[in-house]
Hints:
The protein has 581 residues and is mainly α. The protein has 24 helices and seven strands. α8 crosses α9 and α13 runs antiparallel to α14.
Amino acid sequence: MTKINPNILQWLLQNTNSQNLYNALKNLDELHHLMQQGGFKINANAFDNAIVQQRLLNLLSQQDFLVQPFLCELSRRRPWRNVCLASQMLDEKYLLKNWRKIIESLADPRMLIMGLYMDNKSEALYRLSERLMSCPSLWQKQNSSKPADKDLAEALSCFASEPGLAKPAPGIEPKQLKAEQNKNAELRKQLKSYKNELEQMQRQKQQAQDTMALMSQQQEEELINQEKLWQKECEEQVQKAQSEAEEIHRAVMQQLLGYKPGEENNLRQDTEMAVSLSRRIDKALQRQAEINTRFGMRHELLQKLHQLQAQQEQLRMAINDAIVLDDELYELDKECNAKLYELRKTLNEEPEALSLDSIPFRIENMIKTVRLDNRDATEKLLEIKEFLSQKQWQQLLTAAEQEKLNDILEKQSKTHGHILTQTKDKNNIDTPQCNEIWSIAQHVADFKRINIYVDACNLMLCAPEWQERIKAKGQAETRKLLVEKCKSKVNLFRQISLVFDSVEEMDSIENIGNNLSLHFAGKKQEEQNADNYLVDMLQKKISDPKQISWIVTDDYGLRNRVQSLCNGAVPVQEFARFLKM
């Protein structure tokens, strides 16, 4: 048996309604079982879906031995039953001799060829149909601009005997024969006139169709232009309404804040002056930091200078006392002179006078820079408190400045005590808890390290919007929509695994893309099959500290079981909200 081209099978499925395909599939147990694998439910309306049709096409292309039984079942149902009956009505010898004329007379001969192939009672006709099935030009997509079928009389005239071959039966008189020939000639003339009228009617019909298409196109263009005009008017009205709302808001704010329209410019100028003053303060603080870095170690520089002077004296004494002089001593003496000159120049530059106004600010910074998470922070804060209680600082600082610094010290001490208490409580916790993730978007920095395991049935049954989809479209369509939603988000994460309950006894896995996979938990017991599958999956997962595992479920029993196996639990409502983003 010749293997049928998949394009022919696709054309066959597209020209058969869903009910007939379902009835044919139902009588073939093996093909019906293969179609239901993977959780697919086949019914009378299932083949209206392009995905189910493509699945049947793939099975027929892979399993060649199922094609002939499937075609046999289709030949008993419309429209293929009528096509097979029509092929039986034709004369076998004439078909074998004049099949080219028959094909050329039909606008689309594929139906007749398929009928000959299905009704394979004659071996010669079956060989002819196999040759026609293998001809690619007959199975190309038909051009929509091809003219309509020829007249039925002309199409059927090829079935008649060829002219000149018929001989008059014996015993017929020549006059009677001539009368019949004249009658046949008149009939041919009438047939020709009918043919011309039919062609004229077809031309008129084509012209009417072209006129209707042109009018439809013009109306569509007018509607598009009208829609653009309405859209432009709507945008103008929206902009106008926004400007009016802004004016009303501005007037209300002016009334609430208590300033007149003329005072708005003054407020803007004051704001700009405040920003300019803030920038000047920042630059001044930066210059002060540079001065502190430059002159803060004056005492150490002076000690270094005395040390280098003493070493230079030793070098010169060694040069004067030497009998055989080392050349390196002169080089060291020159380097010491250069370094001493640089240090004297630095020490001779006087630093700017320290303003008393900066003293409270610097003490405040000293208090706030103490690390409160260290245990020795209490001692440092006490030292600063004793330092401020000295008599000279009470004379330099005003009462308000002293009160402010004492308040800051007390606040920092309380914060330090609170941090120590929290740290002690955390150290007393023996077992880690599974964090509940209420905002997935906050963890965007770790998306590429996160593996998400979804209890899909729990999500569709507990999330309100997915419950409504199940009621409206059914479980199969809802599951398909969930897979599409996850497919649009899977590139953000390392991996997403959807776990469903299956009606089969064996577990099955279907990979969609690189990072998305569908898991069907086998029906090994009455309930909790998906829960057991998720626990087993997380237990077999390779432990990697760089990876993060989340589970999506509202089943707290399942959360407790996988508490030590994952890093976080995402409520189904939060995951459903994230899929809509």
